[in-house]
Prior knowledge:
The chain is an alpha+beta fold. Helix content is 33%, strand content 28%. The protein has one domain: TolA/TonB C-terminal domain. It contains four helices and six strands, in the order ββααββααββ. The protein has a four-stranded antiparallel beta sheet, with helices on one face. The longest helix has 18 residues, at 25-42.
Amino acid sequence: AGPARPASARPPRPAAASRAGGVDAAAAQFLRASLLHLLGEHFAYPWIARRRGWEGEVRLALRVGAAGRVSDLRVVKTSGYAILDRAALRSARRIRVVPEAARWLRGRHLDIVVPVEYRLVNG
């Protein structure tokens, strides 16, 4: 067995989405998938956490505004490790705009909770 390697952000279970902004299910599903893809592109697993074998899931709440801008980021469920929570927030902050969001949102916003998983894999 070789050294542990970090897993990339896995496609997690469906995220909870608020329909308060009047966003339909198809739009919420598209935006959820887009956010998870973008989180995967910006995913970072802190070296010290990998070395110490720390794993966990961080749940982030955020808003996708009518123009697709990501705002109001916050941790709603901690991984149990502040370093992983901060890394998840940093990854999400790198997402400035969700492409195509304005077309799907049609002047509305979407409040959503997305999971960011930190799991070590062997190989």
